[in-house]
Write a structure and sequence with these properties.
With 487 residues, the protein is α/β, with parallel strands linked by helices. 40% of the residues lie in helices and 13% in strands. It has an 11-stranded mixed beta sheet, with helices on both faces. The longest helix has 24 residues. It binds glutamine (GLN).
Length: 487
């Protein structure tokens, strides 16, 4: 029998609830796997073995006593380090927050606790979510467990790698411009970016506040749907959280895709797409057709502006959000002069803290963002980019008048080599071409594995839905996962 750390939550849940398997045994298998593997993968920045085992034992005791337990009772979960966990260090992958222990839980974490999930630890990431490879982690970069000479993707690379290496059963990621879907694609797992407003951002460290969404990551679609069901829904502590009711996502998964109208955006299958990735996507589309879907091509004509629009707006928001890391309130504080008695010494403390604490990519983005917001440039860059964002959003609205979902590659290539793009920010940014438009439009998308390139690396397919269309994209993903002709 497979070890518990290799199993799905939906397989383990009935066994834990019936007492056939203990939450403690499942947690132990996950912790053992972390001990055996993580010194070479670096998927975790922090683990809490004692607290996790205590949580698991409490759940076992409650089950023994016949008490009701939550939807994820006894299931180990890894949480991206951008999400605040009460009493457990949260650095957002950056030295500037080293040693910061939040005094409260993010709403998503509170919901995990309420569902009786077992929080194992915090996963590695590009600092503040800025990156596509994990090489911008302020600590040791995470490697792709399928080939350690390659990146796991970013910024939620730690969560994807932990799943692929069987170092957890479920994981939370966060996606501003692809950070859940791109690492899911590179590591051969499933990751869903919900509609903007579907999941609370309270207690999630802000990067680009009009883009950021927390989402579920798992090894299959059903687990992803279960985790979404736990974290989704309105939260009065996040003013951008939507009132729209949620669905019972696991219950609607199995309805099939007979008659589903699928659109394939021409602009996503064009130049720049690796031929091996294209082959896998085309085969997947044919599989979905044979499962009863109707396929047609659609246009998203403003796609060509997506990268520049995203990198103007997201850096503008980041430059404002990251102003709070000044050495006063939390995390790192340093001063070249020791005591702070004068204004100059205070300025020196700010400068030292921010120079030492932020990595080079974060500094680059703060500078870019400050520039595009500055007087004289605001209209030419920030304001124009906001207008382009509206056009991109309208592209999606028009497409969803024609079809129910869109299908596209998640990334132009499979996982690239460590070091391949890190010194060329533009190349790194361009690799986000198929993911950032979805965040600009605020619509949901799931990335699922759809075969492998000839070198054995996984390829990811995105299924994109209209606002609050999580139910339909999960249903399409599930039908494909069960009915696909390749493994
Ligand atoms: N790679 C993108 C960026 O660096 C996406 C990051 C994210 O989704 N957090 O901005």
């Amino acid at each position: 029998m497979a070890r518990f750390n290799e199993m799905a939550a939906h397989e383990l849940l009935p066994k834990i609830k019936s007492g056939e398997v203990t939450a403690e045994a499942v947690t132990r298998d996950v912790l053992e796997r972390i001990t055996a593997e993580d010194h070479r993968i670096h998927a975790y920045l922090a683990i809490q073995p004692k607290a996790a085992l205590d949580m698991a034992r409490t759940i076992d005791r409650r089950i023994e006593d016949g008490e009701a337990t939550g939807a994820l009772a006894g299931i180990p979960i890894a949480v991206k380090d951008a999400i605040c966990t009460c009493g457990l260090e949260t650095t957002c992958g950056s030295k500037i927050l080293e040693g910061f222990v939040p005094p409260y839980d993010a709403t998503v974490v509170a919901r995990l606790r309420k569902a009786d999930a077992v929080i194992i630890g915090k996963t590695n990431m590009d600092q503040f979510g800025m990156g596509s490879s994990n090489e911008n982690s302020g600590f040791e970069p995470c490697l792709n467990p399928l080939d350690t000479s390659r990146v796991p993707g970013g910024s939620s690379g730690g969560s994807a790698a932990a799943l692929a290496a069987q170092e957890t059963i479920l994981a939370l990621g966060e996606d501003t411009g692809g950070s859940i879907r791109q690492p899911a694609s590179f590591c051969g797992v499933v990751g869903l970016k919900p509609t903007y407003g579907r999941v609370s951002r309270f207690g999630v460290i802000a990067y680009g506040s009009s883009f950021d969404q927390v989402g579920p990551m798992a090894r299959d679609v059903e687990d992803c749907a279960r985790l979404l069901g736990v974290i989704a829904g309105h939260d009065h502590r996040d003013s951008t959280s939507a009132l729209e009711p949620t669905c019972d996502y696991p219950a609607t998964l199995k309805a099939g895709i007979e008659g589903l109208r699928i659109g394939v955006p021409d602009e996503y299958m064009a130049e720049g797409l690796d031929a091996d990735v294209r082959d896998c996507i085309q085969l997947a589309i044919r599989d979905m057709e044979s499962l009863g879907a109707r396929v047609e091509s659609v246009h998203l004509p403003h796609t060509k502006y997506a990268i520049s629009t995203y990198y103007i707006l997201v850096t503008a928001e980041a430059s404002s959000n990251l102003a709070r890391y000044d050495g006063v309130k939390y995390g790192l504080r340093g001063t070249p002069v020791g005591e702070i008695n004068t204004e100059d010494e205070l300025d020196a403390m700010y400068a030292w803290t921010r120079s030492e604490g932020f990595g080079p990519e974060v500094k680059r983005r703060i500078m870019l963002g400050t520039y595009v917001l500055s007087s004289g440039y605001y209209d030419a860059y920030y304001d124009k980019a906001q207008r382009a964002r509206t056009l991109i959003k309208q592209d999606f609205e028009r497409a969803f008048e024609q079809v129910d979902v869109l299908v596209a590659p998640t990334t132009p290539t499979t996982a690239f080599k460590i070091g391949e793009k890190v010194n060329d920010p533009l190349q790194m940014y361009l690799s986000d071409i198929y993911t950032v438009p979805i965040n600009l439009a605020g619509v949901p998308a799931v990335s699922i594995p759809c075969g492998k390139a000839p070198d054995g690396l996984p390829v990811g397919m995105q299924i994109i839905g209209p606002h609050f269309g999580e139910e339909i994209i999960l249903r399409a993903a599930y039908a494909y996962e069960k009915g696909k002709s390749i493994v």
